[in-house]
Structure formats: structure tokens, C-alpha cells
Design brief:
By secondary structure, this protein is α/β, with parallel strands linked by helices. The protein has a single domain (2-307), classed as Alpha/Beta hydrolase fold, catalytic domain (Rossmann fold, 3-Layer(aba) Sandwich). Helix content is 43%, strand content 14%. The chain has helices at residues 15-18, 46-54, 81-89, 100-113, 126-137, 162-169, 177-191, 200-213, 217-229, 233-236, 257-266, 284-307, and strands spanning 2-5, 8-14, 30-34, 58-62, 119-124, 142-148, 244-249, 271-275. An 8-stranded mixed β-sheet has the order 1-2-4-3-5-6-7-8, with helices on both faces. α11 (257-266) links the parallel β7 and β8 (271-275). α4 (100-113) crosses α5 (126-137). The mean pLDDT is 93.
Length: 318
């Protein structure tokens, strides 16, 4: 469904709307799921959402700005990634059409629009960066933070493998659906989990489902520029004071494991869980392992808040 948040139209899916149970769905602790670069809310595995619902949570997914069914920003033009990359390597400031912080305020705006005072915030890849920014800007709104296969953005961390960068910078041979699917199959194979390969037929089905819903590659370029321009987040992670879990694949070829280690090191009390054989994707086996860590993390954070005498899911004043 479409809501107005932070001044833009944002597409969300809310299990309280989809699966109401005896009227208690709106009272459950909320989990806000934020997806990564160029990815839509449908990229969250259904078993991930269902496991959280079964554990007693209200689950809200969102399309980030410029992607999926959320408002696009084509009036801001197509960014010059080559020039931005040169500036970044030279240590020069990179100007972006919008920032990761803007995207974080979109997420906070979703909570505002739904009347949710506090939520567990979970982000994957770029979504982890957005989630970190939510916790930096509004820790009091976060029951907990979970940052998955993401980064602090600190300089000096390991770079993506060269082959990954080469594939990422290529374009589909044409705009035909088959050519676009072929392109993304190559990308997901390069960044995927070596210990848990996804069958190509399953991969093609998921990619095609996303393409049929929406395909907006220029939005991905603008999001990429927002990531490159976010140069102060690492130092600001020390401001986060909510319970934090950092999950990262030890075989991630796009965002190497030391990015997760650095993120956890910079957030007081953060727990780091490394997953052997996992790359930069969400195969069923690592999803199950991550849920085994995430659900107790969310429950412990909610219990700690309950013992403090605060409500886990207060409504905002109208």
C-alpha cells in the first residue's frame, strides 16, 4: 500500500494490514525491514517475513526512494558515476542527488505515518547503512538495530573483488527482459554465497518477478551515489545506543567480512555473528541461520525495554 512519509510517496507492505489476527496485529512490536541497493521489498524472502510474524512481530517492508513502487526522482537527472568515482579516489567531496540520511528519514517517516513510536530496524547491505543512519538520527525510535552484510563506510576497509566490480559496472545487452535477467543472473552468481549456491532457475524466477513489478536502473545509480557520498557515518556510529546485532557472511565478495567487523567494533555492545560460506545474498540456509540469531536479539531487546518500564510499541501522539 502507498503512504505519504517524509514528503514522498512510499510503497510498504505491513503484516498488520495483510494478516490481522483478532485485532492484535497492530499491538505487536514492529520490525521495519530495509532492503539494499536497487532492491525492492519483494526481495525479502517470504520465510523471513513469516518467521518474524510467527515469533509475534508486526513486519513492515518498504521500497526505498527511487526504486520499486516508491516515488522516483528522475527530475534529479542521471548521475555521472565515473566522475564520482574519480572524486572519491582523490578524496574530493562527492555530491549526490540525495543522501543515505535522507533515506533514513524516509524510514523514520514510515514509522511516523503508521503511528509507531519505536521499532526494531533491520537492514541488508545499503539497507544496513540506512538502518545505521536511522539509529544515529533517532536511537530513541529503535528498539534494536540489525545490520546485515553492510558496512560502516570507513576508509581503508577491503574492497570488493575486481570481478564483482566489473560485472556491476556492465549493462544488459538490451532492455529486453531476457537480456536484463541474464545480466542480473551473472551479477548474483558473482556476489552469491559459495557455500550455498542458489539454483539458476530459482534465481531467474526471482529476478523476473522483480522486473515485472518495477525496473528502474537509473534509481539504482542515484542510490549508489548516495552511498559513495556518505563519508561521515563511521565516526557517528558511536552515537548508537540501542541493542545492535551485526550479521555478515565470511565469504562476501562484494562487502568483505571486515566491513561487518568494523561496524560492530564502532557500536558499543554490538554483537557480531559471522556466517561461513555466505556471500552477498539470501539463500535459504543462511536465512535460517540469521533468523536463529535475529529473533532472540529482537526478543531480548523488547524484554529489556519491558523491564525498564517502557512500552515496546508506543503510539505517536496524533
Amino acid at each position: 500500500m502507498k503512504i505519504r512519509a517524509n514528503g514522498i510517496d512510499i510503497e510498504i507492505e505491513d503484516t498488520a494490514e495483510i494478516n490481522p489476527r483478532d485485532g492484535d496485529s497492530y499491538l505487536r512490536p514492529a520490525v521495519l525491514l530495509i532492503m539494499g541497493l536497487g532492491m525492492q521489498l519483494v526481495a525479502w524472502p517470504p520465510e523471513w517475513v513469516q518467521a518474524l510474524v510467527d515469533a509475534g512481530f508486526r513486519v513492515i517492508r518498504m521500497d526505498n526512494r527511487d526504486i520499486g513502487l516508491t516515488q522516483h526522482f528522475d527530475h534529479l537527472g542521471k548521475p555521472n558515476l565515473l566522475l564520482a568515482g574519480i572524486k572519491y579516489k582523490l578524496g574530493m567531496p562527492v555530491r549526490a542527488p540525495y543522501s543515505v540520511d535522507d533515506m533514513a528519514h524516509d524510514a523514520i517517516g514510515v514509522l511516523d505515518a503508521l503511528g509507531i513510536g519505536r521499532a526494531h530496524v533491520v537492514g541488508v547491505s545499503m539497507g544496513g547503512m540506512i538502518a545505521q543512519r536511522v539509529a544515529i538520527a533517532a536511537s530513541h525510535r529503535c528498539l534494536s538495530l540489525t545490520s546485515i552484510m553492510s558496512s560502516s563506510g570507513a576508509k581503508g576497509l577491503k574492497k570488493a573483488q575486481p570481478e564483482v566490480l566489473r560485472v556491476m559496472l556492465r549493462r544488459p545487452s538490451s532492455s529486453a527482459p531476457e537480456a536484463v535477467v541474464d545480466h542480473y543472473v551473472k551479477l548474483f552468481k558473482v556476489i552469491g554465497s559459495p557455500g550455498f549456491p542458489i539454483p539458476e532457475s530459482d534465481m531467474r524466477e526471482r529476478i523476473l518477478r522483480g522486473l515485472e513489478r518495477s525496473f528502474h536502473p537509473v534509481g539504482t545509480l542515484r542510490q549508489m551515489l548516495a552511498i559513495v557520498s556518505d563519508t561521515t557515518r563511521a565516526e557517528q556510529l558511536a552515537r548508537i545506543n540501542c541493542p545492535t546485532l551485526v550479521l555478515h557472511g565470511r565469504s562476501d565478495p562484494l562487502v568483505p567480512f571486515d566491513h561487518g567487523e568494523d561496524t560492530a567494533r564502532r557500536i558499543a555492545g554490538a554483537q557480531l555473528v559471522g556466517i561461513d560460506g555466505m556471500g552477498h545474498d539470501l539463500p535459504p540456509e543462511p536465512v535460517s541461520m540469521m533468523l536463529d540469531a535475529i529473533i532472540p536479539h529482537l526478543q531480548a531487546a523488547a524484554m529489556a525495554l519491558h523491564h525498564s518500564g517502557l512500552n515496546t510499541a508506543p503510539k505517536l501522539a496524533p
